[in-house]
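The passage that follows is intended for readers who have already worked through the single-chain material. We present the inputs for a multi-component assembly, then the predicted structure in tokenized form, and finally a short commentary. You are encouraged to pause after the input and sketch how you expect the pieces to fit together before reading on.
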Amino acid sequence: MQEATYQKWNAQVTAWIDEAKANILEHFHEPLDVEQKSGRRDLVTQVDKENEQRFVAHIRESDPTARILGEEGLGDDVQDDKGRLWIIDPLDGTMNFVKQRDDFAIMLSLYIDGVGQAAWLCDVMGNRLFHGAKGLGVWLNDAKMTAPANLPLSEGLAALSGPLVTHDVDHMQAIAAASLGMRIVGSAGIAFTKVLRGQQVCYISYLRPWDFATGKILAEELGLVVSTVDGQTPTVLSYGVVLVATKQAQKAIVAMQTA
Amino acid sequence: MQEATYQKWNAQVTAWIDEAKANILEHFHEPLDVEQKSGRRDLVTQVDKENEQRFVAHIRESDPTARILGEEGLGDDVQDDKGRLWIIDPLDGTMNFVKQRDDFAIMLSLYIDGVGQAAWLCDVMGNRLFHGAKGLGVWLNDAKMTAPANLPLSEGLAALSGPLVTHDVDHMQAIAAASLGMRIVGSAGIAFTKVLRGQQVCYISYLRPWDFATGKILAEELGLVVSTVDGQTPTVLSYGVVLVATKQAQKAIVAMQTA
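Having made your guess, compare it with the prediction:
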């Protein structure tokens, strides 16, 4: 993406995110209207829906020919990745928002014909906006980020998903044992930020497109790898176990699948 | 403890903690001098040791007849809980400090004849000092805290320890499944703060005295329960699996041990 194009989008999307943050903080000290989706651990609140609705309205106005894939389904029914596609998670880590009022994120990204172009990932309570574009690099708020060290799995902390660990899916317990320790934060967006910052060498979870599409663009710009657990490249419409990791950690995790 | 006595200690200990925080932040952007203790996951840095040394010196001056039990062993060789005893963890979550520069704590507490009197728990990067005394309540910085809701395990997030979960010690995987989700933060001090704030309904881990002595005083003042996993009262010199939880969550966890 051209830098001027990116800067134009960055100004707009940052304003949309500020509006979404303000909406979240307005509801911060009052009881939320919480509904279950697929089960008691899969929640949605009126804040998720209001934020998605506003993002969809802004994108329709600013990028009228684009399609929109949003977690709450208020965008389009997207079955392929052709053309301009915005992928949005208006409030990632809804359980954390409901129960902890901490560790939740807002994510938006733009793909063209399946290729990531620009991404915005906001750690709301940490006041950290990670943003960047293909070929231009990544910023944390106003500071350009440097690539994290390419540490092996054995020299880093591993962010994993609770259900994958307790059911030992894809050798998750061996991966935890090979690392310096397992961490579980309960938000894909927040877990991605820790790998981007070099605080953790990998994050592995069962992810849907809006959980990883944004983080993938930022991670790849910083020399990290996003793949399926057996080393394949996920499309942005994939559902499954996806990881983000340093090159060395990814190699070790993929090797453990066939060992 | 008398309020005036507590306020006197609070002014002193807060100043010691501010000094320890300043020492931590001084080393924040430079490589640390890291040593392994019992293994590759059990670390100590020069910052842990310097902070413990300073706390010991301050306590020796302000409370000369007291004994001191510190994680790094720079206090006394304490084999019983008689008399005045300070229990200190100069930097809890050393792995997080080394690898993430986040999610670590400082903890100090005063016991007399085995009974908790006053406690200070500092979430350094969160800028949150939890402090309080027996019979006086708990403050988060300058604000008096209210007791968290007595939620059941099934309505809250559960903070657990990675090794206990992967080895399924004491039915940890069933406890995770019964909760709304498992979280692992890698610092006993930080995990205690989340239960104190009502963000999580329990925290269970293999803990040593300096890991839980401080949190225990604060938790009990807020109507929470600290016990062994089978419902016994731990002494402040206990080593073992210890939990802090709401009354309802503790009851469910203890019941699962004999089910």
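Commentary: Chain B touches chain A at residues 40-41, 95-96, 99-102, 156-157, 162, 165-166, 173, 176-177, 180-186, 194, 199-200 (CB under 8 Å). The longest helix of chain B spans residues 3-26. How closely did your sketch match?
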